[in-house]
Amino acid sequence: MAFAAFATTEAQPQTTRRKSPIALFLLLPGILYLVLFFLTPLISLILTSLQAPSEFGDIGVYDYAFNWQNYVTVIQDYWPHILRSFGYALLATVFALLFSYPIAYFIGVKARRRPLLQSLLLVLVIAPFFISFLLRTLAWKQILSDESLIITSLKALSLLAPDAYFAGTPFAVVFGLTYNFIPFMTLPLYTTLERLDTRYLEAGSDLYANSFTVFRKVTIPLSMPGIVAGTLLTFIPAAGDYVNASRDFLGGPDTQMMGNVIEANFLVLLNYPAAAALSIILMAAILVLVGVYVKRSGTEDLL
Amino acid sequence: MSGEVQAAAVLGGLTESEELEDRRGPQRPRRRRIGLGDWLLPVYVVLAFIFLLIPIAYTFVFSFNDSLKSNIAWRGFTFDKWLNVCNVEGGAVCEAFGNSIVIGLVSTVVATTLGTMIAIALVRYRFRARSAISLLLFLPMATPEVVLGAGLAAQFLAVGVPKDMLTIILAHTMFCISFVVVTVKARVASLDPALEEAGRDLYGSPREVFWRITFPLLTPGIMAAALLSFALSFDDFIITNFNSGSVTTFPKYIYISASRGIPAEANVIASAVFLVALAIVVIAQVSRAARAKRLAAQMG
């Protein structure tokens, strides 16, 4: 949605923009703030990622250096976590897209003539946001735990193998990521589908395309901006998330993601250079993936 | 963002979508053909919404659980937790909740002010380095929270700033600014310039025109942005965890207690927040619908 909003406002007819010293007054405080608390932290992250352990210091004390081997070490130590992060995030994004598209289509196209129903459904889409992210995730953990009502009754009905379990599996983590980021997928999809001119769909069926062909050749291409924005808004936070994969939530020892090892290195092991190097790798990988994806899907004007 | 990029979206998206109504073309009545979508889609949507709401219902129901320390097994119904929210663990839940409210309010005020100023400048003025500034505003939204959190923590560590409430507020303000800009910008761009021209024609000074015409017209967008900021800040865990030191916010309290069991009082607070947020959004939606109806009546 953020991405979509950037796109829509850029496309609006420009009122004549003036040059004025007021612009500087308006921009300076906010921009300065972002430089101080967004840009320079990224630079200190890069500097930290190259630090070497201090010769005399204790645990957690490092000197500035150009110790690029930190990157080699973290890739050697944590390549499974790196792959897992992007794999889980990719799966969650695909599932969220498949789950959300019909909902967004229903709200944006089918419910168009009933504004009240439309508003009600939109409120329901964002309703999960209003309950704490962590409690939502814990609720799933308990609903799907081995002793829970759902799991025990599924087993009693032989719909689930007696030794099947859910807690701590990769499936549970991907499930949690999918659930938590569904609204991020649904909202941008809704925004583009809401503006879809249904005359194009009628034109398609007038030309004897069946409804599947119309959907594939008309609806999907026209909703591409929403698909791109939604997948980015889901993929980026999912790749960096460490709540779902945490052992106290839906994860287990074999489901730890990059976020978990960044957290552990920074806050528990006090290995700041390793945490910083992993963060830089995560950010660089995401920027590259996003750049390639946006280019390939032909929606560059989105950014 | 953790949860959260949230509602913004809806709040922000709604303020800009008002004038789009006619762009999609008139709807002509179609010949009816019973397709798969006619019944399959509504059924799917109903099931999907039930699925989406399960954890909310669970959290709400378990706020009435007569639980002991941890709130996992159902032990019977009680209003007790709602009536004595602060009586558990020496009020730790309520202290965390209070911290979250203070942090949310301060970050919201600062981020909304700074972000609104930027949004006005972006739409109304010409200046150099526009694309660099757009990039600087866009990047915080495209950066994973764990990177934002670790970066700030690394900087506070390097400069020697101790982590406390202030560092949390500094962090929250940072990630809220971009979302405010996006939300308010849409509103500024959709303002009818004729209204301000009318003000100038009536000899209003630039200051009067701004405060008596422009600003009131921007208010819905600014309100939406402020609500979004508060929601983002209130539910943030990942960035907070890196920059909070020993200060506990409500999400952090849940994260810490997760291993030993969350008291039902946390469910009470989360459920209450849910009801308040829901009420705000419903009121906003209803008044928007009423406004649209009034406008339609005036025009028709």
UniProtKB/TrEMBL annotation, chain A:
CDD domains: TM_PBP2. One of its GO terms (cellular component) is plasma membrane. InterPro entries: MetI-like, MetI-like_sf. Its main location: membrane. It comes from the Bacteria. Signal peptide: none annotated. Keywords: Cell membrane, Membrane, Transmembrane, Transmembrane helix, Transport. Residues 82-293 form the ABC transmembrane type-1 domain. It is found in: Cell membrane. The chain crosses the membrane at residues 22-47, 86-108, 120-139, 164-190, 218-240, 274-294. Pfam families: BPD_transp_1. The keyword Transport applies. PANTHER family: INNER MEMBRANE ABC TRANSPORTER PERMEASE PROTEIN YDCU-RELATED, INNER MEMBRANE ABC TRANSPORTER PERMEASE PROTEIN YDCU-RELATED-RELATED. Belongs to the binding-protein-dependent transport system permease family. CysTW subfamily. This is ABC transporter permease subunit.
